[in-house]
Specification:
With 812 residues, the chain is an alpha+beta fold. The chain is built from 19 helices and 39 strands.
């Protein structure tokens, strides 16, 4: 959220000796997190107001003009192609050294003295888009120059000063004020600053409704709408609002529209209370706040037509719905170009209801963001007074012809009893009762002491769920006292011995192994899954938990596997990379009534730790991808220090290729899968022309060794020899069988120091039904240097064993 410091000063007079950095620090330490401060005036450095005294033709360009411009202390020639230039016009001039966006696009560029088609030009006469002010000075034709003739400014005046842009914008982290709906406006922050520095806060003159006939307003559901204020105002016009109002709205991230709409937006940004204006001529009969009818249609202001449900709350007249309560007004009944009479709505809507509606229809608006935090119904009085004062200032001849305030229930104020002894223990120090009372009263609380008990009554703007238990009062006292003013004390404890958390160590070692040794990139995804990837990987959402309030309409399911989001990450990254390897380690979640995989355990867990990875590459490299992924799993036990894993084919995963798949077993249990993503599943994930080799392991099933199992083996003092052998085997023979024959008779005095697979070949040079396997022997002795003859004899002995056992023969 953006806040204007200049705007805040309308409500609290901040002394000059309180520096801006201190305000930001104190707000961050006590109230909300100030993420940044933007000096708005600094953006207009070296920009001034100029007056075009004379316009001369450019000798070398028909569309360019030479503008002799008064800059206050000097007169300069500036070449410009503006289509609306005239003599006597006040313009925005960027002098050399100023930063602008050329034609309103691209990065900022620094203006310098330059020759334009042979004529020297001092700076630049700017269009609004070039200095970031298009929303305040819109245009429809290119090369339209900002016209400042209506502003009370002299030549040479600083542009920021002339446009009242000397302001500081505070950027507030929205998450830090989620539980503080009273702070979603400039007045709320001003009230906090007033309390922090014990400064007086300026109030608003209360609006006194005139004695006019009430018009009828009905609330069918007072739970969803606790209060509704309606004011019928006539003798208005659809004119622009004063520039100061437009500027302030623009500074904090909104776009000025017209005077009527700007009043509603300005009042919301000031007080935090959303409001809406309906065109009175288009409201038929009286206003009713009711539940929508099933499949009822509503055309919104943004042009989108909704099909509503009975869970939606609407504002309706006698002919149908005219607005989606707390979210957005209707397109046919809101302020139109010919509007001169409005019905001003200042209402309070239930936070949960508004939140459900925004999620159901995938709509986010500034009004909805505030309503779903829980707004105090009493804030309507402040907003009403503020808005009506603005209407009176903008439209002196306006008249109020109808007023109705439907407020069936009394305002709620939270009352909390706090033990002073409890408060002292929690704070770690005794704060005098008088100091506590003064701090809380500055925040709007009322305080009474009765022995050890302190009764605190919260103001209505803090009674929306924010203040409800003694701990909330403790927080208020501690933040007002200043967290930095509490003395730190050492914690007394004893350590009896180191705790060996082998499960936590295993989780960390798995990540380190995959990232460091295997060169994979770790990713992090949300715990919910897009419906598209659920269908692609599993074919449906059976057994998966679903969210009651999903983050978007197509993300209902909570992950029961890491693979869907992993495949989404693969699809996203394929736009930039052709081959890569990624993994994720995170929790997965199961429906207790559906998942039966762990029935043998004492209790059925709702969540488990999983790790999943993907090797991605060209479809022609499937064998290579498979061996890489299989090698990662095979070597995992050695580096992570867990029991060994085995591979077998028992049950094919639903997402896997019909041929390339394996189940992973660990300590007699199925711990995961390794397989090629099937073409059907890949297409469902938006993956084309790429092979994706996936693996997933249940970390909670892996059994770590209680201690390291590595054994020391001294390095040989004598050289080792790599000896490559290529032999023909029958096609069904597996590398595992070959490996077992080679290593089966090795002992401590054997010359074999290692064996590894090199490659496998099938082709026209290999007889049908055969395959050529190349493996590498590491031959050496711990006692002496072997001769060539000894090495050859040992290799031939292995070849004979392979020939005798597996029918192998040397490849010629």
């Amino acid at each position: 959220m953006k806040l204007s410091l200049d705007w805040i000063k309308d409500y609290v007079n901040i002394p000059q000796d309180i520096e801006l950095s201190r305000i930001a620090y104190d707000l961050t330490m006590s109230t909300v997190e100030v993420e940044g401060m933007i000096d708005l005036g600094g953006k207009f450095d070296k920009m001034v107001v100029g007056v075009v005294n004379r316009i001369l033709p450019h000798p070398n360009a028909d569309k360019l003009k030479i503008c002799v411009t008064d800059l206050g202390s000097e007169e300069r020639e500036i070449v410009c192609g503006g289509i609306n230039l005239r003599e006597g016009m006040k313009v925005a001039v960027a002098k050399p050294g100023a930063l602008v966006r050329w034609h309103g696009a691209g990065d900022l560029v620094e203006i310098g003295k330059a020759k334009v088609r042979g004529v020297e030009s001092y700076g630049m006469i700017c269009a609004s888009s070039e200095i970031g002010l298009f929303d305040l000075f819109p245009f429809t034709e290119e090369a339209t120059i900002v016209d400042l003739s209506e502003f009370d400014a002299r030549p040479g005046d600083n542009l920021a000063e002339a446009l009242c842009m000397n302001d500081v914008i505070l950027e507030i982290d929205n998450k830090s004020l989620t539980n503080r709906p009273d702070l979603w406006g400039h007045y709320g922050i001003a009230r906090e600053i007033s309390a922090l520095y014990d400064l007086p806060i300026n109030g608003f003159a209360q609006f006194a409704p005139p004695l006019t006939p009430d018009f009828e307003i009905t609330i069918d559901d007072t739970t969803r709408c606790p209060r509704y204020i309606g004011v019928r105002i006539e003798r208005l016009s659809n004119t622009p609002s004063p520039f100061k109002i437009q500027s302030r709205i623009w500074r904090v991230g909104m776009r000025p529209i017209n005077a009527i709409v700007d009043i509603t937006n300005y009042a919301m940004l000031a007080t935090g209370q959303p409001m809406h204006a309906f065109d009175s001529d288009n409201i038929k009969g009286h206003i009713t706040v009711r539940r929508a009818r099933d499949a009822e249609k509503l055309l919104l202001l943004n042009g989108r037509e909704l099909s509503l449900s009975t869970e939606d709350l609407v504002i309706a007249d006698d002919e149908g719905s005219v607005g989606l309560a707390g979210v957005m007004g209707g397109g046919k009944d809101s302020v139109l170009p010919e509007t001169n009479k409005v019905i001003l709505e200042i209402a309070n809507f239930e936070a949960i209801g508004v939140r459900h509606t925004t999620v159901r229809h995938d709509i986010r608006t500034d009004a909805a963001i505030r309503y779903e935090k829980g707004i105090d119904p009493e804030r309507g009085d402040i907003a009403l007074s503020f808005a009506m004062q603005m209407f009176a200032e903008f439209f002196p001849n306006m008249s109020v012809t109808g007023f109705r305030d439907v407020y069936p229930s009394d305002p709620n104020r939270s009352e909390i009893d706090v033990s002073l002894d409890w408060l002292e223990k929690r704070l770690g120090k005794r704060i005098p009762n008088g100091d506590i009372a003064r701090m809380l009263e500055r925040l709007g609380f009322s305080v009474n002491f009765d022995g050890d008990n302190m009764r605190v009554v919260a103001p209505t703007w803090r009674s929306t769920g924010d203040i409800s238990i003694p701990d909330d009062i403790m927080e208020e006292v501690s933040r007002m006292h200043g967290y930095e003013n509490f003395e730190s004390t050492l914690i007394t404890t004893t350590f009896d011995g180191a705790i060996n958390q082998i499960e936590a160590d295993m989780d960390r070692k798995i990540k380190e192994y995959l990232a460091s040794r295997c060169g994979m990139n770790e990713i992090f995804t949300y715990p919910w899954i897009s419906d598209q990837y659920v269908r692609a990987i599993f074919g449906g959402a059976d057994g998966m938990l679903s969210l009651s309030t999903p983050p978007s309409p197509d993300e209902h399911c909570v992950r029961s596997s890491l693979l869907p989001n992993l495949c989404k990450a693969v699809s996203d990254n394929l736009r930039f990379f052709g081959s890569f390897a990624i993994f994720e380690s995170a929790l997965v979640f199961f429906d207790r009534d559906f998942e039966t995989r762990y029935d043998e355990r004492e209790s059925l867990p709702l969540q488990r730790r999983n790790v999943a990875g993907a090797y991605v590459g060209d479809p022609e490299d499937v064998n290579l991808l498979f061996r890489k992924a299989k090698g990662v799993i095979e070597a995992l036990p050695r580096y992570v220090h867990i029991e060994p894993v085995m591979f077998e084919k028992i049950e094919k995963p639903v997402w896997a290729d019909d041929v390339v798949w394996l189940n992973i077993r660990h300590c007699g249990e199925r711990a995961g899968n390794l397989a090629l993503l099937s073409k059907k599943a890949a297409l469902g994930c938006g993956i084309k022309n790429s092979a994706v080799m996936l693996f997933e392991l249940d970390i909670d099933l892996l059994k770590p060794y209680p201690s390291r199992t590595n054994k020391y083996a001294r390095l040989s003092e004598y050289p080792m020899t790599d000896y490559d052998v290529s032999m023909l085997f029958d096609t069904p023979v597996k590398w595992k069988e070959i490996h077992e024959v080679i290593t089966g008779k090795s002992g401590p005095d054997d010359l074999l120091r290692g064996v590894s697979f090199v490659d496998e070949y099938k082709g026209h040079q290999v007889p049908e039904g055969k395959k050529s396997v190349t493996f590498r022997l590491v031959i050496g002795s711990l006692k002496k240097t072997l001769t060539s003859e000894e090495i050859e004899n040992y290799a031939k002995a292995i070849e004979k064993r392979l020939k005798k056992t597996l029918g192998a023969e040397l490849r010629s």
